[in-house]
Amino acid sequence: MPDLPTPALHEWNLMPEAAIALQKRLAPKIQREDRLGEVSTIAGMDIGFEDGGEITRAALILLEWPSLTLVEQIVHREPTRMPYVPGLLSFREIPAALGAFSRLSRWPDLIMIDGQGIAHPRRLGIASHLGLWLDLPTIGVGKSRLCGRFGDVPEEKGHWTPLTDRRRPEDPADIGIVEGDRVTIGAVLRSRENVKPLFISGGHRVSLETAVDWVTACLGKTKLPEPTRLADRLASRRGEVRESGRLPL
DNA sequence: GCGACAG
DNA sequence: ATCTTGTCGC
């Protein structure tokens, strides 16, 4: 049984200025180099809402690697405590996510989260924040852009273009490839043809290249990688997810 | 000052 | 995110 610090209200229910200050203090702690062990399980995390937003619903999926077989699925519901504010998403969704993780029978070796990693104004998106809290390798798998610019994305599945942003004063020198006053913070990946691309970024303890590799390796026939796809389904729709294993390539 | 803005 | 019907395409 994993044991994790209980999220105290005062640590998450912060005023915007305090939350931003905390992000700036935590961002330097993010590990951008690969620090993953052997991967035998991968988790997928996503959040949904009920009652017009009154209830937060955290969905956690645990898959076995490389079969991508479902080994555990958890749904955790609790009252919503923060409104959605661009850039402060983690404060709204992480408490519920931790509730789901506390019910997991064992820690995953890698986690994919619906949202950004360091591709964030202060380089601390929800995937990074959660990874730091759990001290586990995380990858951000966003369905849309929060910040940064990118050029045309190749049409071929698996190809991508860098997501770059203006370098911020507090950005560490090794945050990514630096070109002039810009830095690469993520990858805009064509996970599937004829569909809008995915925004991949390292969360914690995972480099961008490795993040893209893992997401690509978990792609099936759909736009989202299996971990996130299943968590997504569990977070929104009712009922459970039944899965028998990896889809044919 | 005017947009943009993860889920 | 969520509210919502049918519809086009592989």
From TrEMBL:
Record's keyword annotation contains Ribosomal protein: no
Localization in the cell: Cytoplasm
Uppermost EC category: hydrolase
Residues of the site described as Interaction with target DNA: Y84
Transmembrane parts of this sequence: none
Presence of the UniProt keyword Isomerase in the record: no
UniProt binding sites for Mg(2+): D46, D114
Main location group: cytoplasm
Cofactor or coenzyme needed: Mg(2+)
Family, similarity comment: Belongs to the endonuclease V family.
NCBIfam families in the record: PRK11617.1
Function (record text): DNA repair enzyme involved in the repair of deaminated bases. Selectively cleaves double-stranded DNA at the second phosphodiester bond 3' to a deoxyinosine leaving behind the intact lesion on the nicked DNA.
HAMAP family named among the record's database cross-references: Endonuclease_5 (MF_00801)
Protein name per its UniProtKB record: Endonuclease V
Upper classification of the organism: Bacteria, Pseudomonadati, Pseudomonadota, Gammaproteobacteria, Oceanospirillales
